[in-house]
Design goal:
It is built from 1 helix and 12 strands; from the N terminus they run ββββββββββββα. By secondary structure, the protein is mainly β. The two termini are 25 Å apart.
Length: 178
């Protein structure tokens, strides 16, 4: 697992699956995340299993399930009215499975992120390292990716995602499990 390098200033992108638009149905609880240190302000932030129908991200139906989930989050002072700021950190590995063939890939998405969420539903992510991103509309083709590097993810209120930054690498999970 990739170790976090930003300490408490920024946290890990926990693949907040609903946040990045991977699911279409309500999520169920995942196994408990790692226990945060008492009094540290860090709270467990487990990711839930999810399913995506064929054609929404990949040409086939996909299931995702955390197999390692030690993600914690911490609320930070808001940068402006109507904005919440949350840091995420911790190891996260998601098993992504092609539901038609059973082919799967274990995606290490233990990146770190600072996420601003706006009242409009928009979000702005500052990320270091890998996170799992489901794209329907955006500057990446429709798909499911591990995005890695130093970058931002701008998510519009309608869910359009724009990934940008000085060092961005993408790995298509749909291609890996096709």
């Amino acid at each position: 697992m990739r170790k976090n390098v930003l300490g408490t200033a920024v946290g890990a992108a926990c693949v907040t699956v609903l946040t990045l638009g991977l699911t279409t149905a309500p999520a169920t609880a995942a196994p408990p995340a790692a226990v945060a240190s008492p009094g540290s302000g860090w709270e467990p932030a487990p990711s839930a299993p999810w399913d995506v129908p064929a054609g929404e991200r990949c040409a086939f139906p996909v299931h995702g399930e955390p197999i390692v989930d030690e993600v914690v989050s911490r609320e930070l002072p808001p940068p402006a009215e109507g904005v919440t700021r949350t840091a995420y950190k911790g190891d996260l590995v998601i098993r992504v499975t092609n539901k038609e063939t059973g082919a799967h890939y274990d995606a290490d998405v233990s990146g770190t992120a600072l996420v601003d969420a706006y009242a409009s539903g928009a979000q702005f992510w500052r990320v270091l390292g890998p996170v799992l991103v489901g794209v329907g509309e955006g500057n990446l083709a429709r798909g499911l990716y591990v995005v890695d590097g130093v970058y931002t993810i701008d998510i519009s209120p309608t869910g359009t995602k724009t990934v940008a930054g000085p060092a961005v690498r993408t790995d298509s999970i749909c291609a890996r499990i096709d």
